[in-house]
Amino acid sequence: MSLENQNILISGSSRGIGYEMAKYFAEICGSMVIVCSRHIENAKKVSEIINGKTYAIELDVTNTNNINYCIDDILKKFGKIDILINNAGYRFDKELWYKKFHEIEEDRFMEIINVDLMGSIRLSKAVITQMIKCENVNKNKRGGVIINISSTPALSGHFEGSPYTIAKSGVIGLTKHIAREYGIYNIRAYTLALGNISTDATYYSMDDKHKSRAQEETSLKRWGKPEEIAKIVSHLASDDFSYSTGNTIIIDGGTIMI
Ligand SMILES: NC(=O)c1ccc[n+]([C@@H]2O[C@H](COP(=O)([O-])OP(=O)(O)OC[C@H]3O[C@@H](n4cnc5c(N)ncnc54)[C@H](OP(=O)(O)O)[C@@H]3O)[C@@H](O)[C@H]2O)c1
């Protein structure tokens, strides 16, 4: 599958990893990218910066009505969504991150789960509904690709950030379920378990001690770059990976090895 005629929806593409993926798909792969933010002016700004085919929408993954409205709008304009990247993630909240699991209030847990896990579930449901709308499943397998962004603590566990680990673990289950139930529709699904990738939310908000501690954990002795994630995602979404589905791909500079 060439990515040139593909319509790609990337949640949380106003900055960081989502932004780099949007830029890569639009500028290098020639895809049509739906750029999303909870604030339409941010999505539009990004859409203007990127030198390629883009469409800016206001999307909040915690709001099912908003999701349904956006999907209808995209389908009216472009007819189909071929690739969904569930990238939107709850902002890094230092206070919550360092709080002990047993001390975190239930509603604080739910805030993160509502974005990172439920947000991916909501968008996947809405997009799959249109991906499986095919006259004859066996003769005309249009299908699609869903890529869910998780994190290495979902595999290794961690001593901080329990709501994040738990939400990101659920995402791995979501991927496996989609792969199993919808493989018959030629829908493939993957999880990316990311290590430390330098974005404003991580590298640029940390002190030097934490930055170098994260770097030293890796085999490659450095942080990952958002562009490196964009390249991997573009391969996963292409036909290069046509006989692989449901898997978790770890991108962490060689920290967790399985
Ligand atoms: N950077 C890392 O080291 C790292 C490591 C492991 C996993 N990850 C995961 O990778 C993804 C991207 O990380 P990042 O570092 O690029 O984060 P980031 O810079 O904080 O970007 C997060 C994105 O999510 C969007 N977002 C937040 N809440 C949302 C909501 N309710 N509905 C829709 N969009 C929402 C934000 O958009 P608006 O604010 O414009 O709405 C923003 O574009 C996240 O899922 C994160 O957990 C990152």
What does this structure look like?
The protein is globular. The model has no long low-confidence stretch (mean pLDDT 95). The chain is α/β, with parallel strands linked by helices and 258 residues long. The two termini are 29 Å apart. It has a single domain, classed as Rossmann fold, CATH 3.40.50.720. Helix 1 links the parallel strand 1 and strand 2 (32-37). It has helices at 16-27, 40-49, 64-78, 94-97, 106-131, 153-156, 162-182, 208-216, 226-237, and strands at residues 7-10, 32-37, 54-58, 83-86, 144-151, 187-194, 248-251. It is built from nine helices and seven strands; from the N terminus they run E-H-E-H-E-H-E-H-H-E-H-H-E-H-H-E. The chain has a seven-stranded parallel beta sheet with strand order 3-2-1-4-5-6-7, with helices on both faces. Helices cover 44% and strands 15% of the residues. Bound molecules: NADP nicotinamide-adenine-dinucleotide phosphate (NAP). Residues 11-12, 14-18, 37-39, 42, 59-62, 87-91, 115, 119, 149, 151, 194, 196-197, 199-202 line the site of NADP nicotinamide-adenine-dinucleotide phosphate. NADP nicotinamide-adenine-dinucleotide phosphate is lined by residues 11-12, 14-18, 37-39, 42, 59-62, 87-91, 115, 119, 149, 151, 194, 196-197, 199-202.
